[in-house]
Every structure is written in C-alpha cells, then in structure tokens.
Amino acid sequence: MKRYDLIVIGAGPSGLSAGIEAAKSGANVIIFDENARPGGQLFKQIHKFFGSKEHRAKVRGFNIGSQLLKEADEAGAEVRLNSTVLGIYQDKEVVVRSGEAITHYKADAIIVATGASENMVPFEGWTLPGVIGAGAAQTMLNLHGLLPGKRVLMLGSGNVGLVVSFQLKQCGCEVVALADAAPRIGGYGVHAAKVARYGIPFYLPYTIKKVEGTDHVTGVVIAKIDQNFKFIEGSEKHFDVDTICVAVGLSPMSQLMKMAGCEMDDNPKKGGQVPVIDEHGQTSVPGIFAAGDVSGIEEASSAMIEGRQAGIYAANYLGYIDDEKMNEKEASLDAALDGLRQGMFAPSNRGKKIEKTEEGIDISENLLAKGYVADDEIERFPGVIRKIGIHPVMECTQNIPCNPCQDACPKGCIKIGSKITSLPVVDQTKDCIGCGMCVASCPGQAIFLLNENVGDGMAEVTIPYEFMSVPEKGDKGVALSRSGHPLCIAEVVSVKSSPAYDKTSLLTMRIPKEFAMKARFYKSEVLAKTV
Amino acid sequence: MEVRIEEHPILGEVKKGRKVKFTHNGKVMEGYEGEPIAVALKAAGVDVHRYTAKNHSPRGVFCAIGRCTDCVMVVDGEPNIRTCVTPLREGMTVDTQYGTSAEPFRDELREAN
User: Fold this and answer.
1) What is the mean pLDDT of chain A?
2) For chain A, which has fewer Cβ within 10 Å, the N-terminal or C-terminal residue?
C-alpha cells in the first residue's frame, strides 16, 4: 500500500487546481485520472473563456489546460494517468486500477473531482449509430481532427449545444437545426447569436420524435410539444441528417462519494445526486472533500476556483496551513467565485424567466426564441451606439459575468465598472483607434467595429472571424444579418490577424451604409452561390 | 465523405501519428498510430461497432470518452474493448462484436449469405 497526504480523484480543471494548491502548501499529493491525458474536458474547449482576467477570461480552454498542467508539475503534484479509482474504502483507502494492475493507496484526505457525464433522452431510434453526445462531437472535432458527420441536428440549446454547434460549423459541418424542448434558449445569448448568424434555425419548444435509419442515422423528425410534453399533431419537421448531437445537460459523477458513505442530496438545481458539503467543501465524512461539477453542475471557471478552495481546505485539514492562512486565501477565492455566480445565468436563477437586465432594460425576447436580437431591439442596449467615425458596437445584452473587453481597450472606450455582470457601455468621450482588441477579446464574439460612413454611401463593419479559409482583401461575398439572412454584396477591405488576437481574425467588410447596423457576418462568394 | 480535418481554424494543423495497418472483420484498413480505434474506423466509414445480445440492434460511438461503453468491439480477440479510448496499434484485429463474441448471430449470417 502506498501512502500520500492527499489523493485527488480527477485531473480536470478542479482536480488539478486542488492538487496545485495542496502541493504548494507542502502536502504530498497524487492525482489520479482514468484518461490517457489530463485536463478533463479542457482540451476540447477551443472557445475563449468568460469571466475576468483573474479567472483567465479570454484565454481558450485548451491553453488553460496546458497552464494548469505546468503549474501542477511545478508545485510537485504527481499526476497518474490511465488510473481508474475503483473505490474509496474505510480510513481513506483507495483502490486504483491501471491496466491489469490493482494498487492500494491510502491518504489522510481525499478530494473527489470526478466531474460529470452527459445526459441522454430516449426517443425512437436513440440507440442508432450516429446519435452521439455533443461532448463526443467536440472530442472528435477538437481532439482527434475528425468530423462526426456532415449534416447534423443538435438537440439542446444550453451552452454545450450552442458552443458545439458553432464548433461543428467552424470545421465545415452543416448544422441543419437546433431543437430544444424548452420554450427558451438555455445558454448564453451571445453563443446563440454566433450560431444564428449562420442562419441555423432554432426550433423551440421542439424535440425529436424519431430518428430514421437501420444501421445508421439517415434522417430525423422533430415536432413541437405542448406544456405537457406531448407532441402537437401536424407540427412535424423532417431533416435529412447523418448525425444527431444530444446536449441535454450533465449529471454529477458522484458514485464514489456514495460509496465512501457520504451523505447525498438529490438536487435537480445541481444536476442530480450530489454530496452534502459544508462551507469548506467537506462531505459528511471528515477529510473527504468535493470540488467542481461532482458537487453541482456549473462550468470550468468556477470548477477551478472550487478546486483551489478544496486544496486549501484539505491542506488545512492535514495541518499544512493554519486557519488564519486558510481564511485569508479563502476570502479572495470566495470573492472570485461569487463574481462568477452573479447575473442572469447564476445557479440561483436556474429555471427562472428573467424579463429585465440588471440595468432595467427589457430582455430581447427574439434572442430567447430565435437566437438573435431583432433589429428593433438592438439599439436599446448601452453597448450599441451610433457615432461618427470608427467605434465599437457591443451586442452584449445579458448580464453575464465577463469583462475582458473593458481591459482590452487601450483608450478606455469600454466601461463595465466594478460589477462584472453589468452590460458594457461605450464611453463616447474617448476616441476609438480601431485597434480591434475588444473584438478579439470578446469570448461571445459580440463586439463589432463600425464606421457608418466611409464615403460614397458606404460603411465598414469589422467582425471576428474564426473559420477555415479566411477570405482575403478584395474578395467579394455576401453580408449576412444577425439571423443569417443575406443582405447585400460585401467587399473585404482588410483581414487582420495578430498573436494578440489569439487565432481570431478581424475581417473588415465594406457594405452600403443602410446595412451598417444589420450586417454581422460575412459569407464568402463560393459559399454565397448557395444563398 | 472525407471526415478527417487537415487543418483546424483554431488548433492549426492536426497532428497525426505514423500510418499503420489494421484489420476490421478481416479487411485491411489504415489509420494513425495512437489515435482511438473508433476514430480510425469512423475515418474509414465504419459506424456499427457491435450488435446487442438481445435485440441484435446496432450500436456505435455515443460518448467518445470511455464512459458509455456503447462502442465496444472484439480487439485482438478480446471482447468489450472500448474502442473510443483504446489507441490503435499496427496489426490490430478489430472485429464487430455480437453480444460478447466476434461470431455473428445466426440471422445476421443468413442475411450475409
């Protein structure tokens, strides 16, 4: 039997963070993970993260993963891969399977950071090859360089469904529709807007009636549902697809905690069976802590903070840091966690219908139903202004904990203030120099640069562009509206890329000025033939 | 349909291992060393990994991270190998799994004949 001070189960964002903190305090730490590579799901997350600078906002998930691994290594936390923890037994004894070998380990404290697994909903044909989890699509695309299919229907409009739909498009898959049984889009409006700009239709409240095919998916029928989740006759829509992606939520993988005898709570707001934990992340079994999605479904940024806290609590439990030091470290992390748990998508608001922003502005109903803010709604938001000369237009219309745009602007044109969920405001007294740092910094791709009059009745719009075959200066294509509707011919006047933009190109297109407030996407001419 | 991504807009060039040969139901196929078996199969157009014991219904990849076990196959004679998390090696034999065996069910055999 091998002894350690602390065993961490799971090398995802929270497990790694926990191991780092505890190892830094001097504890002897081992982290187990069943996968061949560490990082949990971080390495498939290619979008820029939300939050503030302290939470590594605007850094892409996979880069955060690399940073955490380096940090764990420097702190001296041992990471053991291909090692499945089979059980937690009495006196914090753990049994680990690695290949054919089974090894006993014992620690004085355990942090369980096993994360979550994807949910499924049954429908006719749900077991057919070609029906895959949205996470599987992400794994294929971003880890293995493989398209999961050519024509895809996405079920579920939470952040996972939205983000994966976008990532599928980024690699050239066609997403024919996005359906959700809920009457409103569940994820961030900015993620929905990125998908809608492509013209991907949202069907709400719709769900899958049946999937067709004998050995593989060949088509799907979706239908509208009533309040009792019954299909409405005659509302069926058929799509030829080869793949169905299911993104209907996550459930905590809390089996190990149940096995360890921790008191459990069946909590739908937290995603299912979670351990009961005290304010120090400690379960009902002294010395066993929980962190990340296993203690309630949230997202990677909060999982990292929870992990750090659990590492500190465990270090205190083990006697490596005193109460004073623990409280001091905890206070700053608490503030950070609190910051992330604010706004419309805060865990406490789950399931509630929010009608006004914190500023008292009516929420865009069109955004919740169709994925984009309607033309007659957009100008009521404080980030959307009209001004002579180049200026940012921020189509950020929900209170999301995120503020990289404020830090990105070297001229101080963008103000969010100390409350991280506030809508961004354009300070019209400051002069925009058109550097585009705000456009590239926005994880929601909701910032555009506008010059509403460049002469000859034309305007210029700069958009973030993250797709294959980046157009070149002089190319002509079609400008698309927020709903993906073709508006007019657009000429590319510049395409900028820079290490500071982190793989987001800034494409500036010239269009007739009456479309300046409408054009938000560029479709190249080859593709444009199909519009 | 070509399903391999050569260059990803964010991740850049997709790194691949050495090209290796393996067999699927006796047929020689190619894939890249170290990638999951399921990825090599998908790239070669194989979607059905197994047929269930009771209803003989086809199954393929669902979660792709080794959790759901829907993609198990008979690999080098051993059944129930999770192909989505098992790295491909030169000369592997990968066979469709019927129940827990590589032997097709009688009705499937009849159809094949």
Assistant:
1) 95
2) N
Contacts of A127 in chain B (CB under 8 A): 57, 59, 70
Whether B21 and chain A come into contact, CB under 8 Å, resolves to: no
pLDDT of B109 reads: 63
Mind telling me how many Å the CA of A169 is from chain B's nearest CA?
11
**Could you tell me which chain A residue has the CA closest to the CA of B50?**
A129
ipTM (interface predicted TM):
0.95
Q: Answer yes or no: are the C-beta atoms of A326 and A312 closer than 8 Å.
A: yes
B39 and A CB contact within 8 Å: yes
DSSP per-residue letters across A401-460: SB-HHHHH-TT--EE--SSTTSPPEE-TTSPP----HHHHH-TT--EEEEES--STTEEE
Rounded CA separation A60/A445 (Å): 13
Contacts of A129 in chain B (CB under 8 A): 47-49, 58-61
Q: Do A135 and B8 touch (CB under 8 A)?
A: no
Closest CA to A381 of A367, A358, A401, A397: A397
Contact A430, A502 (CB under 8 A): no
With beta carbons under 8 A apart, name residues in chain A contacting B49: 129
Contact residues for A336 (Cβ-Cβ < 8 A; gap 6+): A54, A55, A305
Residue whose pair of structure tokens reads 């510049």 in the numeric block: A494
A·B CB contacts under 8 A: 100
**Distance (Å) from the C-alpha of residue B33 to the closest C-alpha of chain A?**
12
Task: List the one residue out of A222, A157, A201 whose CA is nearest residue A183.
Answer: A157
Angle at A486 between CA A483 and CA A489, to 5 degrees: 140
Asked if A136 lies within 8 A of B10 by C-beta distance, the reply is: no
pLDDT tens, residue order, chain B (113 aa): 579 999 999 999 998 999 999 999 999 999 999 999 999 999 999 999 999 999 999 999 999 999 999 999 999 999 999 999 999 999 999 999 999 999 999 876 666 65
What is the distance of C-alpha B44 from the center of its chain?
Answer: 9
- CA gap A12, A111 in Å, rounded: 12
Q: Strand A219-224's sheet: what is its strand order?
A: A206-212, A219-224, A237-239
Per-residue confidence (pLDDT) for residue A527, from 0 to 100: 53
Within 8 A by CB and 6+ apart from A113, the residues are: A8, A9, A10, A12, A14, A15, A18, A290, A291, A292, A294, A303, A307, A310
B59 touches chain A (CB under 8 A): yes
Backbone angles phi, psi at A43, to 5 degrees: -75, -10
- Do A512 and A460 meet the contact criterion of CB atoms below 8 Å apart? no
Query: Which helix (DSSP H) or strand (DSSP E) does residue A329 occupy?
Result: helix A323-340
Are the CB atoms for A50 and A35 separated by under 8 Å? no
What SS3 class is residue A267? strand
Closest Cα of chain A to B2: distance in Å? 8
Nearest to A148 by CA among B5, B75, B67: B5
* CB contact B30 to A (< 8 Å): no
Per-residue pLDDT, A177 = 98
Q: What is the DSSP letter of A284?
A: S
Mutate to test the interface with B, among A144, A164, A240, A241 (most CBs of B within 10 A): A144
Measured CA to CA, the distance from residue A406 to residue A413 in angstroms comes to 8
